[in-house]
Design goal:
Elements (H helix, E strand, L loop, with lengths): L22 H8 L23 H5 L12 H12 L1
Amino acid sequence: MPSRVSGALTQDWEPAVLHKSKPNALALRSGAAVQTVKKFDASSNKKPATVVNTRKLDEVTEPAALDKVSTEVRQAIQKARGR
């Protein structure tokens, strides 16, 4: 449990200001050379383009739909799964 502070409590209404340090800005102002490197793929919110080989898709000779199996085969598979 937190301990209680004895005595009168006062509120501090002074604003608290937080700043990030900017070492590059200091170096630029002093005239020093600063090297900046862009990260790989930075600032690009793009999905990679899918590469589709259309000739390969056109040459496909397989049928679009598969042949259906008989009822007996389906029932045998269902019975085997139930065991």
